[in-house]
Amino acid sequence: MDRKLIYLDNAATTKMRKEVVEAMLPYMTEMYGNASSVYSFSEPAKKALAESRAVFAGILGCESREIYFTGCGTESDNWAIKATAEAYAGRGNHIITTKIEHHAVLHTCQWLEKKGVEVTYLDVDENGLVDLKELEAAIRPSTILISVMFANNEIGTIEPIKEIGAIAKKHGVLFHTDAVQAFGQVPISVDEMNIDMLSASAHKLNGPKGVGLCYIRQGVKIRSFLHGGAQERKRRAGTENIAGIVGFAKAASLACQTREERVRKEKELRDHLISRVLNEIPYSRLNGDKEKRLPANANFSFRFIEGESMLIKLDKAGICASSGSACTSGSLDPSHVLLAIGLPHEIAHGSLRLTLSDETTKEELDYVVDCLKEIVQHLRDMSPLYEDFLKKHNQN
Question: What is the dihedral angle through the alpha carbons of 346, 348, 349, 350, rounded to the nearest 10 degrees?
C-alpha cells in the first residue's frame, strides 16, 4: 500500500466530522450573538443552547436542566470532585477513587488531600477492574463521594458502573464517573446506573476541542466552580461556547446514531489487530480486560524494548500511536495504570496504545502490524537485556 498517515491515537483526540463543522459554522459567522444578551439577535444562540442541552438529556436519560456545559472533560472532573468536597464538608471528608483514574481526577484528589480531605485509592485487578467488595468495604460514615471512571483511557477496561452506582446509592454516597472515553461508545443511562455526576468531552467523539459537559443530578448541592456571571443557571460563569456546544451535540447525536454498526466494525478490526500482534510478536501481552473493554482500544506491552523509541520509529513509518495518556506524553515515568495492574517498570515502559476509528481499515492495521514486527525486533536486537534473556533461555 502507498505510505500515508495512519492515525491510531483516537483516545487522545479525534478528527471532527464534516457534519459537525457545518453545524458549527453559522454560530461563528451569521448567528454569533451572546446567549445571555436580551436583544432578539441573541435568540438563535439561546435556542441552539437549549436544543443542544436537550440532545444530551435524551442521550443520558436525564432532565435538560441537569446538563451543564464546560470547557473540557478535565474541568468537569475538577468541578464534580472539588465542589462536592466543599459542599458536603459538613457531612464528611472522605472520597473513594481508584489508582487508574485519569490525572484530571487523581491530581484533583491529591490537591484535596493537602486541604485535609481523606482519599482512598482502590487497587484494581490485573485487567484493571475494581473489586466491588473492596469498594464497599472502603465506605466510611464520613464518605461523601465515590469517583470511578467509566472506561480507562489507556487500557480500555470498562468498569462495572451500574453495580458501583447501586453500592453508592445503598450507602447514601454521591457517585461521579469520568465518562470521557466511554461517552458515545457505550450506552449510558444515569438513572439505571445511579450516576449523580458525569463528565464528558466533545473532542473524543469527533467533536471540537474546548467544550465538555458535566451532568449534575437535580438535588446534588454543589456550588459554582467558575465565578463571574450567571451563565449555566448560575453554576458555571463564562460566556457559553455556542458553536462548540452545537458541534458537541451534533457529534454526540451522530455517535449514538451510528454506534451499533460502528462498534461492530471497530471490535472486528480491534480483535484482528490483537490476534496478529499476540500471535506474531513474541513476548507481547494485551493490557486490559479482553471482553470488558472499549471497542476501539488495543493496548500492548512488549518486553525488552522502550516505548518512546517504538513510537518514534512508528512515526517515521507514518503511524500515529501513543504509549498511554496524551496528558502525560512528556513524562519519562511508566504509566501509572500499567503499574496499577501489576506490570513491573521494565515491561510497563514498553507499552503501546492503538485506538481505532470508524475510518480505520484492515489494510492499515496489517501494515501497522508488519511495521511493528520489524520495529520490535530491531529494538530488541539492540537490547542487552534481550541478549541476556536469550542466552539464559537457550541454556535451559
Answer: 100
Three-class SS of 242-309? HHHHHHHHHHHHHHHHCHHHHHHHHHHHHHHHHHHHHHHCCCEEEECCCCCECCCEEEEEECCCCHHH
Give me the DSSP letters along 64-119. Answer: GGGEEEES-HHHHHHHHHHHHHHHTTTT--EEEEETTS-HHHHHHHHHHHTTT-EE
Task: Return the number of other C-beta atoms located less than 10 Å from residue 291's C-beta.
Answer: 8
* CA distances in angstroms from 164 to 17, 76, 129, 168, listed in the order given: 34, 20, 12, 6
Please tell me the predicted confidence (pLDDT) of residue 1. 45
Question: To 10 degrees, what angle do helices 242-257 and 259-280 make?
Answer: 70
> 3 is written with which cell numbers?
505510505
State the pLDDT confidence band at 331, using cuts at 50, 70 and 90.
low
Q: What's the pLDDT band for 334 if we cut at 50, 70, 90?
A: confident
Q: Is the pLDDT of residue 332 over 70?
A: no
CA pair distance 250, 253, nearest whole angstrom: 5
User: In the annotation, is 327 catalytic?
Assistant: yes
Beta-carbon contacts of 231 under 8 Å, excluding residues fewer than 6 positions away, are: 35, 36, 237, 238, 239, 240
Contact (Cβ atoms closer than 8 angstroms) between residue 310 and residue 368:
no
Specify whether the CB–CB gap between 132 and 161 falls below 8 A.
Answer: no
Q: Please list, in sequence order, all residues whose beta carbon lies within 8 angstroms of the beta carbon of residue 35, skipping any fewer than 6 positions away.
A: 42, 45, 46, 48, 49, 231, 239, 240, 242
145 DSSP β-pair partners:
95, 174
pLDDT at 250 over 60: yes
Q: What length does the chain have?
A: 396
Active-site residue, from 62, 109, 214, 327: 327
In the block, residue with C-alpha cell 462495572: 160
Instruction: Express each pLDDT in 160-176 by its tens digit.
Output: 999 999 999 999 999 99
| Distance between first and last Cα of the chain | 42
